Amino acid sequence: MADRVQLPQQHGVLVLNKPTGPTSNWCLTAIKRLGQKKIGHAGTLDPLAAGVLVVLLGEATKIAPYVMEGEKTYLGALTLGRTTDTYDSQGTVTATAPWEHVSPDSLARAIESWRELISQEVPPYSAAKHQGRPLYELARKGLAAPVKVKAISVFDARAESVDPPSATFRVRVSAGVYIRSLVHSLGTRMGCGAIMTALTREASRPFELTQAHSLDDILADPQSLPGRIIPLTDALPHWPTVVLDAPAAEKVRQGIRVPTGDGFPDGTCALLVSEARLPLALARAEATDGRPRWAIVRGLFGDPQPARRGGSTAPARQNTP
What's the pTM? Predict the structure, then answer.
């Protein structure tokens, strides 16, 4: 059986095509049983949702905050006339209302109006926490919890097909946006309620659904897992990769700041690697004593000592992909 296969700990990103049904944690547990004890993800998906689930293995768990912050693209579906406690079709119906007054044009405009939103209420059935406890735990026990509101950005929203009481839509949003909350708020504005009935995450930048692997395929052939993993050196393609010579690499391992070289303005984030292309650290360009240097943000393959001022005067070299 697949769960008896014990592979060496992998280090990198697995772009998983999560199926509808299981939770994100269930998917991670299935992969963990293949010997991947150090594992995490960059943004969970609800059981109803499918699509891109970015799984981080080994040292890649350290880059979670920098992968998680990428914008997301979703293809979804909604139905008018019902409200549920989870805001989707898997919840308990709490209200029904006539929807016949909603025209195709008005429904399409309501979807497009998501672009104007700058905040949303966090759904009561979510992993967001109140006093250290997930909201879904409080909701299941019938315990009261304050309504949480979070800032969001909706970069694009459009109706793909509209046939009331149903519609499909595509949205591109900032990290952490609850799509079912967008649907719920639309239903409230339309005066008839609405629930999300399907959702596929098509992208979690910088990763796309076209890169994703089926969980069933991995479990059917566990030995294929290493070949499906994006190496840590390629896990942040939107960051420059900087190759350090041996003396500078040793300084970075010790947490010492090294010169950035030319072409890196203050605030630039980069992946520092050795001449052998081994990951060393995530770093940010900062001026130290009037000279630009790489400040260590996160050490990789062995955390460096706390950063201190000074370091090698040998400039770093940028590796151009």
Answer: 0.84
